[in-house]
Every structure is written in C-alpha cells, then in structure tokens.
C-alpha cells in the first residue's frame, strides 16, 4: 500500500508497542512533532500500559504516558459499548475475523476502520493481515523514525541513536537496524513526502 500518511490529516491510532517504543526512551516528542493533533490512543491501549505502573522499570513509562496525555487530552479515544467500533472490537478479540487479537490491537483497528484512520503498530505479524483485509494503512516505529529524518524532525544520527536506545530497552525492532530501515524505506517515504 502506498504510504500517504505523511502528507494528510488522517488520524493515527497508536497501539501499545508503537507508542511504548517512544515512551520507554522518553522521546514521544518525535511522534508529536511528526503527527501533532492526529495522534489517538485508545483507552484499551492506555489500560495495557497502566500495568507498567507497578513495575520497577515500567513505572516511569506509565508516568510519562500520564503526563503526555494530560497535556494532550484530545488524544485518548474510547468506544461506547453500543457503537459500531465496539461491535468490531468484540469480533476481533473473539476471533470472528480470523486470529484472536489482543485488546490494544483490536481497539486500534476498530477505531481506524470507523474513522478511516491509520494503524500505528509494531505487531506486524498479527496486525498486517487485518490491515490488508480492511485496506488500512499501517505504520510502525521504523516508518516513524525514517519519516522523522526525512521531515527533518531529527537527524540521521539521532535516528540511529533512538533506534539503539529502543533496542537497549528491549523494544522489538528489526535486526537490520536503523541504517537498514533507512535503505529500505527512505526512497518510498521521500516520494510520499514530495507527492511525486
């Protein structure tokens, strides 16, 4: 699918693993600088991250999420249990649309479907088939970091360091590293930026 997310105002719905990659290293500013008011985080994802607040290393991640959400209140989205979003969410977590999904992934996909939004997730194995099936655009941490360099939000060197910091915090990223991600994605994303 063509990457159009860099040049439009489509809402971007973040799954736990994607937003947490930036929270763990205290660089959520990259996401904000790239997406601004387009960022949405479902309540189910926030509840998943809330589990970290009682852990030795994760409590700062949850604290930073709370601080982040308190200054960007428009970002949290919920689903009424009588809504189409909730109905789709239930179908996804119950496995009626294929493989059963976790609540975070299911809520992100349900919101993105209803709002014609973009899914931001690193859980490509589980999420990509649904995104393909429902024609949803999918971005991951590596897309975001490469785009941040292209858009001059960060330098290439900061992109490399950010990737390394994420790996050091046990974030699951491809083994080819930031340079490999750059070589793989930058031609496509540069084209998306210029609209050519």
Can you describe what's shown?
This protein is α/β, with parallel strands linked by helices. The chain has a domain at 11-140 and 171-176: Rossmann fold (3-Layer(aba) Sandwich), CATH 3.40.50.1010. The protein contains ten helices and five strands. A five-stranded parallel beta sheet has the order 3-2-1-4-5. Helix 3 packs antiparallel against helix 6 (103-115) and helix 8 crosses helix 10. The longest helix has 18 residues, at 177-194. The protein is globular, with a radius of gyration of 16 Å. The two termini are 15 Å apart.
Shape, per Cα inertia axes: globular
Reported for the largest beta sheet, the result is: 5 strands, parallel
Can you tell me the CATH architecture of the domain at 11-140 and 171-176? Answer: 3-Layer(aba) Sandwich
Radius of gyration: 16 Å
Instruction: Write down the oligomeric state.
Output: single chain
> Proportion of β residues?
5-15%
Helix content: 55-70%
Overview in brief:
Helix content is 57%, strand content 8%. By secondary structure, it is an alpha/beta fold.
Provide the fold topology.
Layout: E1 12-14, H1 16-23, H2 28-35, E2 39-42, H3 43-50, H4 59-71, E3 76-77, H5 84-94, H6 103-115, E4 118-120, H7 124-133, E5 137-139, H8 141-150, H9 156-168, H10 177-194
Parallel strand pairs: 1-2, 1-4, 2-3, 4-5
Helix pairs in contact: 2-8, 3-6, 5-6, 8-9, 8-10
């Amino acid at each position: 699918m063509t990457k159009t997310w860099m040049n439009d105002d489509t809402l971007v719905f973040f799954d736990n693993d994607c937003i947490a990659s930036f929270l763990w290293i205290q660089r959520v500013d990259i996401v904000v600088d790239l997406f601004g008011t387009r960022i949405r985080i479902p309540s189910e994802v926030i509840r998943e991250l809330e589990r970290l607040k009682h852990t030795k290393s994760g409590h700062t991640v949850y604290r930073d999420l709370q601080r982040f959400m308190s200054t960007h209140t428009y970002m949290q989205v919920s689903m009424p249990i009588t809504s189409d979003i909730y109905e789709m969410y239930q179908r996804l977590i119950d496995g009626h649309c294929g493989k059963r999904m976790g609540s975070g992934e299911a809520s992100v996909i349900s919101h993105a479907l209803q709002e014609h939004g973009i899914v931001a997730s690193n859980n490509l194995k589980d999420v990509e088939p649904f995104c393909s099936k429902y024609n949803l655009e999918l971005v991951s941490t590596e897309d975001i970091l490469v785009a941040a360099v292209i858009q001059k939000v960060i330098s290439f060197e900061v992109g490399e360091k950010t990737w390394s910091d994420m790996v050091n915090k046990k974030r699951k990223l491809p083994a080819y590293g930031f340079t490999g991600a750059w070589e793989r994605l930058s031609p496509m994303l540069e084209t998306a930026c210029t609209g050519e």
